[in-house]
C-alpha cells in the first residue's frame, strides 16, 4: 500500500515536472523542474528495487547533465537566451513530435506480453535490501522437520519468498555478470543449439570511446584560438 | 546478526515484538511505519546534531590556531552552546529575497543542497547493519547523491541576481565537475580490493587489526587515501578549495544574498557533507567501525554472540551493544577526519581559481589514474613474485570467512548460488 502511494507521488512528480519544463520559459527554472522530473524517475527506479539503475540515473542525469546544462546557460546567458519564447510553428512541430513519440511508447507497451514477463520476475517482497538469516535458518529447520507433504510445501514456499525478497534490489552482480555475457535468466532452459546471449562489454566500450572522441572534439572546437595580432587594436 | 548482510531489520524486529497484538497485516503496517519514523528521526538527529558540534569545534579550533580563545561564554567555560545561540539568532533574522532574484529558484535552492546532503546519510552505514537503506551498490549511490549538492549551490548563485553570487556559483560548478573525477577514481581503489560496492562489506573486510585496513593494503591504496581526502575536501568546498565563497574576493560567494534560515541550511549541508565524505573515507580506507586494535575487536566479536534471541527471535542483545559501541567508534573516527579538515582550513591559504583547476586536472586526475592502474596490477605482480595476493599480513578475508562460524551458509555464498540458479 505504501509502495502504491509512493509510486503515485513520484509518478505525479515525474509527469508534473516534465510538463513544467515545457511550460516555463526561463531556462534556469526549466533546469530546476528537470531536476524534479529526473530525480523522481530515479525514485521510481528505487521503488522497483533497481538500485543501480536509480543511482546511475541520479549520477548521470541529475548530477551530470543538468549541472552541465546550468553551467552552459551561465556561460552563455544573455537576455534573449534566458527566456525561451516558442513561435507557433515551433509549438506545432514540437507537439507533433511529442505525440508521435507518445504513440510509439503506447504501441511498445501494448506489444509486450506482460503476463509472461511478470511470471519470470521473482515475486518481490516489501523489504528488499536486507536479509534475515535467522529467519532463513528457522525456515530450513521447519523444512527438515516437516513430516506431511502439505507442511513441506508450505515451508518450501516460505523459503522461496525469502529468497525472492533477497534477490530483489541486488542487481549489481547480475549486471556485472551480464557484461561478460553470463545471463542465466536468458540462457538457461533454452532449446539446444540456440546461441548464447552476447555480453554488453564490447558495446559499452564502443560507447565510452565514442564519448571520449566527442569530448576531445568539443575541447578542440572550443579551444582558445590564438589570433595572429601584431599589437593591440590592430585587426588582421 | 552474523554475516555482514544478515541482520534483522528494525521493521522485522518491531513486527516480531508486536506479534502478540493480533492481526498480522496491521502489525506489519504499524511496524513498517514505526520503523520508517525511527530511521528518519535517527538520521535527522545525526544530520542535525553533528554539524552543531562541528561548528562549535570549527570556532574553537580556529580560535586556538589564531591564538584566540574562541567561544567562551555561552553554556559554560568552553562555549558549548555557541552553535545553538547562533541558530536561534539566525532563525530570528528576516528572510530577505533580493528584487532581482528569481524568487522560486532562490527559495528552493537551499533545500536542494540540504536534501542532497541528507540523502547521503541514508546510505552511510554507521555499524554492522545499522544503515538507513542497505543498498547493494551503496558506494556508487552515495557518490551519486553527494554530487547533487552542487546543483543547489549553482542554482542559489544563479538565482540570486548578484554578480558575486554568480561568480561563486560558476567557480563551484567548474570545481565540482572536475573534482568528481579523481574522487570517484580514488574511491574505486578500495572497492576494487574488496570486490564489492556495498560499504558494509567493504568495512567488514577490514576487521582484525590495523594491518587489515585498506590504506595499508598496498602502496597505491596508501596514496589513494590522501588523494581521496584532498578531492573530498575540495568537493565539500572547504579551504583551501573554498573558491565558491572566497570572502576576500566575492563577499560571501554563492550565499551572498542569503540570510537567516535559508543561509543556515547551506551551512548545515556543508558540515553534514564534511562528515559524510569523512565517513566514506573511514569506511573505505580506515577500517570502518572497527577500532583496529586486536583486543577491543575480539571483545566486540565475542559480544556479538552474547545473549542470542533476546528479547525477540533473531535479535541478540550483545550484538546490539557491540553495534552501539561500533557506531561511536565510527563517528569518532570520522570526526577526527573532520577535525583534520578544519585544521587544514585554518592553516593553508586559499588557492586561486586557476590553481584549483591546475591542481585537479594536471595533478590529481593523472595521479589518481596512475594509482588506480597500480592498484589493479599490484595483486598480479605480488602473486607472481611472492605467491600470495598481499605483501604482508593475512590476505583480505572473503566475506564467507568473516561471517561467524555459527552461520554455516554465508549470505554471499547463498546469493552466488541463487545467481547461478
Any overview of this molecule?
- The complex is a heterodimer of chains A (236) and B (421).
- Chain A has helices at residues 2-23, 27-47, 51-76, 79-82, 88-111, 114-120, 133-145, 149-167, 172-179, 184-187, 201-221.
- With 236 residues, chain A is mainly α.
- Among the domains of chain A are: 2-87, Four Helix Bundle (Hemerythrin (Met), subunit A); 175-220, no CATH class.
- In chain A, helix 1 (2-23) runs antiparallel to helix 2, helix 2 packs antiparallel against helix 3 (51-76) and helix 7 (133-145) runs antiparallel to helix 8.
- Chain A is elongated.
- Chain B is mainly alpha-helical and 421 residues long.
- Chain B has one domain (93-420).
- Chain B is built from 16 helices and no strands.
- The radius of gyration of chain B is 23 Å and the shape is globular.
- The model of chain B is unreliable at 1-7 and 398-421 (pLDDT under 50).
- Chains A and B meet through helix 2, helix 3, helix 7, helix 8 and helix 9 of A and helix 2, helix 4, helix 5, helix 6 and helix 7 of B.
Amino acid at each position: 500500500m505504501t509502495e502504491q502511494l509512493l509510486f503515485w507521488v513520484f509518478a505525479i512528480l515525474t509527469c508534473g515536472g516534465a510538463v513544467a519544463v515545457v511550460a516555463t520559459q526561463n531556462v534556469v527554472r526549466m533546469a530546476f523542474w528537470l531536476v524534479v522530473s529526473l530525480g523522481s524517475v530515479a525514485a521510481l527506479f528505487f521503488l522497483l528495487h533497481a538500485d543501480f539503475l536509480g543511482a546511475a540515473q541520479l549520477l548521470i542525469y541529475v548530477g551530470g547533465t543538468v549541472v552541465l546544462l546550468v553551467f552552459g546557460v551561465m556561460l552563455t546567458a544573455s537576455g534573449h537566451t534566458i527566456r525561451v519564447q516558442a513561435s507557433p510553428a515551433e509549438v506545432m512541430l514540437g507537439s507533433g513530435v511529442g505525440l508521435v513519440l507518445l504513440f510509439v511508447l503506447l504501441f511498445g507497451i501494448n506489444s509486450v506480453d506482460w503476463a509472461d514477463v511478470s511470471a519470470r520476475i521473482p515475486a518481490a517482497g516489501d523489504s528488499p535490501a536486507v536479509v534475515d538469516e535467522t529467519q532463513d535458518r528457522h525456515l530450513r529447520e521447519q523444512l527438515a522437520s516437516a513430516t506431511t507433504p502439505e507442511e513441506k510445501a508450505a515451508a518450501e514456499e516460505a523459503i522461496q519468498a525469502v529468497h525472492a525478497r533477497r534477490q530483489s534490489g541486488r542487481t549489481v552482480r547480475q549486471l556485472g555478470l551480464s557484461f561478460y555475457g553470463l545471463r542465466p535468466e536468458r540462457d538457461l532452459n533454452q532449446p539446444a543449439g540456440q546461441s548464447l546471449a552476447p555480453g554488453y562489454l564490447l558495446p559499452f566500450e564502443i560507447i565510452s570511446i565514442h564519448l571520449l572522441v566527442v569530448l576531445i572534439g568539443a575541447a578542440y572546437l572550443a579551444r582558445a584560438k590564438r589570433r595572429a595580432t601584431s599589437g593591440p587594436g590592430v585587426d588582421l | 546478526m552474523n554475516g555482514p548482510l544478515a541482520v534483522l531489520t528494525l521493521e522485522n524486529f518491531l513486527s516480531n515484538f508486536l506479534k502478540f497484538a493480533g492481526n498480522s497485516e496491521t502489525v506489519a503496517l504499524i511496524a513498517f511505519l514505526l520503523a520508517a519514523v525511527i530511521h528518519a528521526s535517527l538520521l535527522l538527529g545525526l544530520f542535525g546534531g553533528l554539524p552543531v558540534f562541528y561548528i562549535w569545534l570549527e570556532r574553537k579550533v580556529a580560535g586556538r590556531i589564531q591564538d584566540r580563545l574562541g567561544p567562551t561564554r555561552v553554556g559554560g567555560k568552553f562555549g558549548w552552546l555557541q552553535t545553538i545561540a547562533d541558530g536561534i539568532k539566525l532563525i530570528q533574522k528576516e528572510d530577505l529575497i533580493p528584487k532581482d532574484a528569481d524568487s522560486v529558484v532562490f527559495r528552493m535552492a537551499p533545500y536542494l543542497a540540504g536534501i542532497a546532503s541528507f540523502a547521503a546519510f541514508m546510505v552511510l552505514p554507521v555499524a554492522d547493519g545499522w544503515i538507513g537503506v542497505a543498498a547493494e551498490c551503496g558506494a556508487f549511490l552515495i557518490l551519486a547523491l553527494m554530487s547533487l549538492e552542487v546543483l543547489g549551490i549553482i542554482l542559489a548563485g544563479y538565482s540570486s541576481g548578484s554578480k558575486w553570487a554568480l561568480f561563486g556559483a560558476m567557480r563551484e560548478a567548474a570545481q565540482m565537475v572536475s573534482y568528481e573525477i579523481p574522487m570517484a577514481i580514488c574511491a574505486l581503489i578500495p572497492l576494487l580490493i574488496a570486490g564489492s560496492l556495498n560499504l558494509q562489506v567493504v568495512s567488514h573486510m577490514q576487521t582484525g587489526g590495523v594491518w587489515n585496513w585498506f590504506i595499508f593494503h598496498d602502496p597505491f591504496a596508501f596514496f589513494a587515501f590522501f588523494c581521496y581526502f584532498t578531492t573530498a575536501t575540495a568537493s565539500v568546498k572547504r579551504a583551501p578549495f573554498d573558491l565558491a565563497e572566497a570572502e576576500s574576493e566575492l563577499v560571501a560567494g554563492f550565499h551572498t544574498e542569503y540570510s537567516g534560515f535559508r543561509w543556515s541550511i547551506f551551512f548545515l549541508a556543508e558540515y553534514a557533507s564534511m562528515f559524510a565524505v569523512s565517513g566514506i573515507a573511514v569506511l573505505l580506507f580506515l577500517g570502518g567501525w572497527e577500532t583496529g586494535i586486536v583486543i577491543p575487536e575480539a571483545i566486540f566479536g565475542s559480544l556479538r554472540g552474547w545473549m542470542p534471541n533476546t528479547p525477540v527471535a533473531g535479535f541478540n542483545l550483545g550484538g546490539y551493544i557491540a553495534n552501539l559501541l561500533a557506531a561511536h567508534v565510527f563517528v569518532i573516527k570520522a570526526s577526527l577526519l573532520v577535525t583534520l579538515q578544519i585544521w587544514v582550513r585554518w592553516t593553508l591559504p586559499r588557492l586561486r581559481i586557476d590553481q584549483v583547476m591546475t591542481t585537479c586536472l594536471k595533478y590529481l586526475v593523472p595521479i589518481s589514474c596512475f594509482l588506480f592502474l597500480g592498484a589493479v596490477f599490484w595483486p598480479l605482480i605480488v602473486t607472481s613474485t611472492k605467491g600470495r595476493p598481499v605483501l604482508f599480513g593475512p590476505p583480505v578475508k572473503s566475506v564467507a570467512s568473516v561471517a561467524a562460524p555459527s552461520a554455516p551458509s554465508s549470505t554471499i555464498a547463498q546469493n552466488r548460488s541463487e545467481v547461478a540458479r
